Amino acid sequence: MANVKNLLKKSTNLGANALLLVSTLLPTLSVFSAKTVYATTQAPSTGGQALQPTVYDNYDTGAHNWSDSSLTNVVRDSSKWSALGTTQISGNWFNLTQNTKNQAGYGIFNASMDMSQNTSISGMFRTQITNPTAGNDFNLAGDAVGFILTPTNKAQINANSSKPSSNNRPVNFPTGAGLGIGGLPGSVFAGRDLYYNASSGLADDPTQDIDGANQWFGQSPSPIYATVIRTTYDSKNNQILATPGTLYDQGAGNLIPDPVGTYNNGSKYPIDKWGGKSYYTLGIPGTQTEDERVTMTWTPDSAGVTTATISGTLTYVAQACNSDGSINTGAGSATVSQKLVLPRSMSIGVVGGTGSNYGNISFSNNTSNITGYRGTTNAQVNYINATTGKKIAAYPTSTITANVGDRLAIGVAGSVAGLPGKYTYSAPAVPTGYTAQSKVTFGGSFDANGVLSGDIDSTKDPNDSTNSTGGLTIINYDAEGANNPNEINIYYTPKSITSHIYQALSAGSPGSYTLTDSQLKTLGGADFSGFASSTGSIGWAGVNPGLGTQVSGTDTSGLNSSVPINVSGITDNAYTYPSLTTPTGYVIDKIYYQNVDNTWATYSGQAGWTQLQSDHPNMNGGTNAILVTYAKMESGTVHFLYNPEISPGVDESGLPSDNPEIAGKRPPDLPSDYAMSGQFGAHYPFEASNINNALTPGYYTYQVYYSAEGLNSDTPGDVSAQAKLDIFATQSGVSDWAHMSFIDSSNDINVMISPISQKINVKYVVDDDPNATVPDQSTLSTSKTNATISPSLITKSDTAVNTALAGSSYIVGSVTAPDGTVYSASPDGSASAMVNAMNGTKYVLPGGENVASYDGANDYTVHLVDAGTLELSAPDTIDFGTYPISGATQNLTGNLDQAVEVTDTRSSANLSPWTLSVAETSPLQDVSGKISQTFSGLMSFNNSTLTDQPLVVQTHSNPSTGEVTTVVSKNSSAFQLQAPESLQRQADYQGQLTWTLTTAP
Questions:
Q1: 170 upstream amide cis, omega within 30 of 0
Q2: Can you point out the beta strands (E) in 622-734?
Q3: Residue 828, class by beta-carbon neighbours within 10 Å (0-12 exposed, 13-18 middle, 19+ buried)?
Q4: Three-class SS of residue 594?
C-alpha cells in the first residue's frame, strides 16, 4: 500500500527534466461515430451517392468497423501512419527520437477511434540509449514512450511537436515534463515515464510539481521506469478524469496528476533497471536496449451510447521482451488503468520524447492489432451562390458522417474502401434560379453576413498536403471551437431576374373590375400562372377593355395597372424593394408574393409589406412577382340618442335635458360618438358589446339605423343589442351584422335608446311572521324609467293599499320605497306612509337591461303590523248604600265593584293619545213606583258635578304598548251623592253613568 500511495503521488508530478510537450493550446475534437442518431431525413444507403439536399439532410460513408475486410491489417501498414515531429520511419519501425535531447516524435495512425465502442491497439516499444562519449551516464535515458489519444488532428500535433521546453509553468510543450501531450488539450498519455521530475527543476512553488509530490519513493530527480496514464485539461479547461483527483496546478501546462501509476509495478518487472545486460558493454561507449510488448484497451461504461462524451476505462499493459523479441516470461508485466471521460472520436498513435536526457525511442507496428470502430466526424457540403458567396436558400447544407482519415470528393458517385477510403458524391441538379455549377472548393469559413471566404480549389487538400488521390481528407476538429475544417463547397451561378410588382384594388372597390382567373393571367402572363381566386380576389383599376362589368362607384385610385414596377436582381441576392406610393384615400389591403414553387404567400396591410421584406429579403429562383392591392378608406360615426317620443327627461333631439318644463328625471349622459374607419368592404369595427357597454340599467336598444335614412319600420320582439344590429343588417340587404361593412357613401349610424317600461308594484309583509296571510302583490302602474310619479298615481296607490287592508286586522306600519328608504305616516296624520314613500321616491327608478319591460326595480313594500286594542274596564255598579231618613242633608259616597282601567295593546305603529270621560246619562231616580223623584245634578266626580255631558276623567298623551292605566281605583271615593232632607224618601233609586274612551286621529 505504501508503494501504491507513493505511486499516486509520483504520477501527478512532472519536473524540469520530464518529457517535453508543445505549449500551444489546440482545439479539441467533438465528433460522432457510426452509431450516431440521425434526423428523419437520413439517406437510406451508405457510401458515395447522389446528393439530394431537398430530400435528405444526412449521409453516411459506412465502413466504420475495423473488422471490415478493406481494413484488415492496415494498422501494420506503415504507409497508413504519419511520421510527425522528429519521427523517422524505417520499415515497420518508427524511430521517434534519435538519441538527442529535447525531441518529440509521433507516429499517428491515419484514422481515429470511436470511443463509444470497445477499442484496443497493440505493438512494441523500444527504449535504447547509446552513450555518445565514454564516461557519460547512459542510464539517464529519457524521457517518455507510450500511446497517445488526442482529439486534435495531425496538423495540430505536428505544429505542437516543435515547441521548445521551459523550466517554467505552464508545461505546454511536448518534450521533457510534457510527456508528449503537453500543449494538446484533452489528451491522454499511456506508457512509460522514464524520468522523475521533481520540483527543483521548475522555477516556482515546490508544491506545484507536475508529478504531484516532491519525491518519488524518496528519490531525487533521476531516471525511473514508471508505467503511467497521464491527461491534460480539455479546451474548456476541464479534467477528463472520470473522478477528478486533487489538482496541484491547473495552469501547469494542463497536465493533470494521475491517481494511478506503477513504479516497477511492485513486482520483478523489469528484472532490473535494464533487463538483458548483453546489450551493454561496461566502461566503454555502447548500446543498452529495453523492448516491451504493449497493449492499450478502452472499455466504455456503456457501449454504443450516442452522447457527445463517453465514460470508460483505459488500460495499459506492458510486457518485457528478450533480445530476440520474445516475451520475457520471468519479468512479469506492468498494468495501469484509469477511468476517463473522452470525446467520441480520438486520434490514436505513439509518442516518444526526450528532455534533458537522450535516447533512441522507437515503436514497431509489425505485430500490431487494432479492434473496435473508426472515429467519425461530420463533413459539411454547402451549396453556394457564386455571385454572393452565400448559401443557396433552396439547398440546405448536407451533412456526411465520415471516418476520420478517409476522403470525400464531388464527382461521379462511387466508393473506394480502405484507409484512406474515398467516397465520391455527385452534385445535385442545378437549383431553380441558377444556370450552372461553377466550381467545387474545400474549407473556408462564413463571416457574420454569411459570406464564405478562405476556401481553396478542390485540386488541393487543405487537411493533408500529401494527398495525391484527390478529395478532402477528414480530420478531427473542435465542434465548439474553430470552424469545421471538413467543408466542401459546390458553387452555382445565379440567373438574372426582373421582378414585376403589380398594383391593383381590393375586390369590389368602387370603379374597379373584378377579374376572373383567366383574365388575370391574360394581363400578367407567367407572373400569375399560379394565382387563383382561391389565393385572393382583386379589382383591376383603370380602363381595361374586356375585363367585364365595372363595380359601381368611382375609381379614385389613379392607378395605371398595366405598368408594373420592375425590380432587377439575381437569385438569392438582395431584393431591392421600392417605396410604394399609396393612393390618397386608400391603404394597402393585401400583398401577394410569388414563391419559387409558384405558390403564393399572402400578407396584409402596411405591416404586411414590412413583414414581406423581412421574410423574403432576397430574390428567389422564380419570377418573384408581387401583387399589391389597395382598399379605399371609409369612415363613419356611431351616434347615440334617446328616443325623444317616450323618454322622460329628454329633449326633442333625444338628448338628456335639465329643462324643468320637460317631464321626468334627466337620464344618464349618452356615450360619446364612436368614430369608425376602415377599408371599403371591411366589417364595421363596432359590435353589440359597444352598445351594451354604453347602456345603463333601465334602458334598451330601440333601433339601429343609418343617420341619413332615419328610423326603419318598427322592430318588436328581441330588443338585445345584437338583435337590433342584425335587424339593421337585414334591412340594409345583408344576412346579419357580421356581414355589414363600409359602403361607398355615408357610414354614419344612429343607435336609439329607449327607457324600459317599469312595473310599479306594492307588496305586503309582516316582518315577524313570514307565514302571515297578507294581501297579494299587485301592480299599481307601468311607467317609463325616470318618469315622474304623478299625484294621481300616488292617490291611486294609497287607495289601493287601504282597500287591500279593509277588514284586516293589520294596519300599515311603514313602507320601504324601491331605493330602500323606509317611510312612516306623518305624525299629524296628514299623509300615509305610502303617500310619503311615493312622494319621496319622486321618479320611476331604472331596472333591467336589454328588455322592453322590467319587473322588480319599483317595488314598494308595505310592512303590516297588528292593529291591537284600547280597552276600557269600568264598574258595573256604584253603590251609594242604604241610609235612614234624617232631618238634614246627607253626603253619600259611592262604592265601586271594580276599578276603572284602560288597557292599551295597540302596536307601536298604532299608538295615539287617548281620553276617558264619564257622563250621567240617567240620574238616580225612584224605580219602586212609590214616588216620582230624581237626584239630578246632585252626583259629582272628584267634586265635579256630573251631567249628561261628558266629563274628562283622564287624558294619556304618550301611551305605550301593553300599558294598563288605573283611572279610578276600586276603593276610590271620587263619586259623591248629595241627598238634601227634602229628597229623603223611602224608595229604591237607580241611575246610569256612561264612560267614553276616545283616541286621537
A1: yes
A2: 626-642, 674-679, 699-706
A3: exposed
A4: strand
Long-range Cβ contact pairs of 280-287 (< 8 A, separation 24 or more): 280/138, 283/134, 284/134, 285/130, 285/131, 285/132, 285/133, 285/134, 286/130, 286/131, 286/138, 287/128, 287/129, 287/130
- Residue 374 has what DSSP assignment? B
Sequence-ordered list of residues with C-beta below 8 angstroms from that of 356, at least 6 positions apart, any chain: 16, 17, 101, 102, 142, 176
User: CA Rg, the chain, in Å?
Assistant: 59
Nearest 10 degrees: Cα torsion 327, 333, 339, 340: -40
Three-state DSSP class for residue 60 = strand
Cβ atoms of 326 and 53 closer than 8 Å: no
pLDDT digits (tens, 9 = 90+) for 600-644: 999 999 999 999 999 999 999 888 999 999 999 999 999 999 999
Residue 913 near residue 947, CB atoms below 8 Å: no
Supply the pLDDT for residue 262: 39
Residue 950, CA distances (Å) to 201, 919, 939 in order? 145, 4, 14
- pLDDT tens track for 754-786: 999 999 999 999 998 989 999 999 999 999 999
- Say whether pTM exceeds 0.90: no
β-partners of residue 123 are: 294
Element (H, E) at 345: strand 345-353
Grid cell locating 541:
383599376
Measured CA distances, 760 to 336, 779, 794 (Å): 105, 6, 11
Looking at residue 158, the DSSP 8-state letter turns out to be H
- For the record, the C-alpha cell of 155 comes out as 496538423
If 0-12 CB within 10 Å is exposed, 13-18 middle and 19+ buried, where does residue 799 land? exposed
Q: Is the preceding peptide bond at 143 cis, omega within 30 degrees of 0? A: yes
Whether a cis peptide bond, with omega within 30° of 0, leads into 420 is yes
pLDDT tens digits for 940-949?
Answer: 999 999 999 9
Q: Is residue 913 predicted with pLDDT exceeding 80?
A: yes
Task: Round to whole Å and give the CA distance between 793 and 791.
Answer: 5
8-state DSSP, 730: H
**Backbone φ, ψ for residue 876 (5° rounding):** -75, -35
C-alpha separations of 47 from 39, 58, 413, 429, 734 in Å: 18, 12, 9, 19, 67
Strand pairing class (104-114; 345-353) = antiparallel
Q: Describe the strand order of the beta sheet including 975-979 as a list of residue ranges.
A: 890-893, 975-979, 939-941, 944-945
- Spell out the alpha helix ranges (H) of 356-455: none
SS3 assignment, position 493: strand
Which residues are CB-contacts of 842 (< 8 A; sequence separation ≥ 6)?
Answer: 665, 788, 789
Q: What is the pLDDT of residues 407-451, one digit of tens each?
A: 999 999 999 988 899 999 999 999 999 999 999 999 999 999 999
C-beta of residue 551 within 8 angstroms of C-beta of residue 513: yes
Pick the closest to residue 911 from 966, 868, 965, 863 (CA basis). 868
Report the distance separating Cα 848 and Cα 856, nearest Å.
8
Angle, helix 791-805 to helix 833-841, in steps of 10 degrees: 150
Q: What is the DSSP string of 266-307?
A: GTT-SSSSSS-GGG--TTSS-EEEEEEEEEEEEEESSTT--S
E strands, 396-465, are: 398-403, 407-410, 414-416, 422-425, 434-446, 452-457
Within 10 Å of residue 849's Cβ, how many Cβ atoms?
Answer: 18
Report the C-alpha gap between 727 and 725 in whole angstroms. 5
CA 352 – CA 124 distance, rounded (Å)? 13
Interatomic CA distance for residues 419 and 348, integer angstroms? 14
- Secondary structure percentages of the chain, helix, strand, coil, to 5: 10, 40, 50
Task: Give the residue among 470, 548, 475, 469 at the shortest CA–CA distance from 507.
Answer: 548
User: CB–CB of 594/612 below 8 Å?
Assistant: no
